[in-house]
C-alpha cells in the first residue's frame, strides 16, 4: 500500500489528507482566518501566517511552481525595469 492509500482523514475543503486525526484537526483550524493570517489560498478558504506555508499548501492543489504562481497572482514584477516602459 502506498502512503497516500494509508491516509484515512481527508479535509473536506481542500485536497489535504493525513492518517493522523490531530494533524487534520490542526489543519482544519487553518481554514478559519486568524489575526496572524496574512496569506490566503487562491483556491479554497485556507489561511496561513507565512508564505512558505502557502507554498506548501498550493502544491496540494497541483500547482507545480507555487512561488511563480504567487508572484503572478499578486501582480509582482521583476525589480529590473523592462525595456520601453516608464516607471
UniProtKB/TrEMBL annotation:
<protein>
    <recommendedName>
        <fullName>C2H2-type domain-containing protein</fullName>
    </recommendedName>
</protein>
<dbReference type="InterPro" id="IPR013087">
    <property type="entry name" value="Znf_C2H2_type"/>
</dbReference>
<feature type="domain" description="C2H2-type">
    <location>
        <begin position="41"/>
        <end position="61"/>
    </location>
</feature>
Amino acid at each position: 500500500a502506498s502512503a497516500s492509500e494509508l491516509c484515512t482523514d481527508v479535509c473536506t475543503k481542500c485536497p489535504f489528507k493525513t492518517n493522523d486525526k490531530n494533524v487534520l484537526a490542526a489543519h482544519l483550524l487553518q481554514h478559519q482566518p486568524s489575526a496572524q493570517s496574512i496569506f490566503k489560498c487562491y483556491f479554497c478558504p485556507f489561511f496561513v501566517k507565512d508564505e512558505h506555508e502557502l507554498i506548501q499548501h498550493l502544491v496540494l492543489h497541483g500547482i507545480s511552481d507555487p512561488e511563480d504562481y504567487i508572484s503572478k497572482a499578486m501582480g509582482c514584477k521583476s525589480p529590473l525595469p523592462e525595456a520601453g516602459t516608464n516607471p
